């Protein structure tokens, strides 16, 4: 006859729940690293036309270790926010934002902006 031991059963259930919770936690913590670097530009909108030469570029970069704006290194704050000022030239302007993560995976965003005096 098999004897039911409630204490051992509860311990096995507890270990199973803790193991499942740990696996879910590891998945969500590593999700950003598995996806690679990302850049979201919130301002300006691609294709916009401006009448002022000074442009403030804003956005968010996630999982980046190195980021550049037109091949010039820029920095993000502790929340990954980007805020950089750029002086536009008259006519069409192409702005390139490139980022690399710690695994050397790359991402690039291209903005085309028009400045008319």
Structure in words:
By secondary structure, the chain is an alpha+beta fold. The chain has one helix at residues 6-35, and strands at residues 38-43, 49-50, 54-62, 66-69, 72-74, 81-87, 91-100, 106-115. The chain has 2 domains: 1-35; 36-115, Immunoglobulin-like (Sandwich). It is built from 1 helix and 8 strands; from the N terminus they run αββββββββ. The chain has a 5-stranded mixed beta sheet, with no helix packed on it. A hairpin with a 5-residue loop joins β7 (91-100) and β8. It is rod-shaped, with a radius of gyration of 24 Å.
Structural key phrases:
44% strand; Immunoglobulin-like; 2 domains; 8 strands; 117 residues; rod-shaped; alpha+beta; five-stranded mixed beta sheet; 1 helix; three-stranded antiparallel beta sheet
User: Sheet with the most strands?
Assistant: 5 strands, mixed
What helical percentage do the residues reach? 25-40%
Series of H and E elements: HEEEEEEEE
Which structural class fits the helix and strand makeup? alpha+beta
User: What Rg do the Cα atoms give?
Assistant: 24 Å
- Report mean pLDDT, rounded to a whole number: 90
Shape: rod-shaped
> How far is the N terminus from the C terminus?
92 Å
Query: Do you know the CATH topology of the largest domain?
Result: Immunoglobulin-like
Low-pLDDT residue intervals, each spanning 5 or more residues: none
